[in-house]
Amino acid sequence: MKAFKIVSSSISLVSEKFLVFFTMIFPVIIFETLWHISGGLHTDGIVTIGSIGIIIFFVLMTIYGIKAVVGIHRFIILNENYSYSITKDGSIIIKIALFGFIISIIAIVPITTNPIWLIYLSSYPVLSIVLLVLAFFFAFLFISSLSLGFPLIAIGENKSAFNLLSIFRLAKGYRLLLFYQFLMIMLPYVFLITLANTFINNLLIVTGLNILLKAYATILLVCSISNTYLLWKDKN
Question: Which of 116, 148, 177, 218 is the least crowded, having the fewest Cβ atoms under 10 Å away?
């Protein structure tokens, strides 16, 4: 019930402050669009403007994506106005990027080892499917359980991106709450994108929908994590 209330309040906040959040995510939308365009211009084995653009726009998309995450957390928690300056939050962006990379790598280990399972469990297809589902469940639960670290790092309350155990302990009592929020936001996004890929034959439209829906889901997820942090803060 708490997860539903937090997600609902986040939806209301995003609707109310739409321009504020859109300002933060707008560079990501632009650079991701240019990244896709560069991918279409890329020619295998040949260095072209498209292949160079793939690298440049991916880097910019990633940097401003992390910048948007930091900006949303600081806006909701500290009521701080957003700035496009990268240097202003440079150290925080690096720490957030490092933290996200570390927990993502750990989370996907069971998934990436699935081909090995298939070799040894080829005679047990049902068991292989069950283990794969459990691997994805672990990835979602692990990332969501540590997601409280993003606002902590963003506002400067946690100085280290390596102290995973400390963040995991701090989130005690809120891990499932964060996990439920993650599912409530990401499952509809995946469902809508799957529908678009199934029923819309225009690649341009599907790509555009994917970029916009991903941007909205990201804003909503970060807002929900921020609101969970505020709830955690009040009780601690």
Answer: 116
